[in-house]
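Class, discuss our next protein.
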Amino acid sequence: MGISKEEVKGKIIEFLQSRGVYSVDVGNQVLVDFGLGSITLIELGQILEGAYDKEISFEEFSTKTVDELAESISS
């Protein structure tokens, strides 16, 4: 069974909220719109890679929206 996109989205949103981003629009780009630093993105990448055994490039974080990133990981 594959990974559900909603599950991945939930994990990303949970992480962002734990870093003080309380209003998460899944149409926002992960890097640009939430103003996260690269260290925070590395942490998020490690969490997602550990949970879903997928490698995620920094480029994906810097260009994709939350929704697109979840889609990419779940596919």
Q: What stands out?
A: The CA atoms of residues 22 and 59 lie 24 Å apart. The chain has one domain: 5-74.
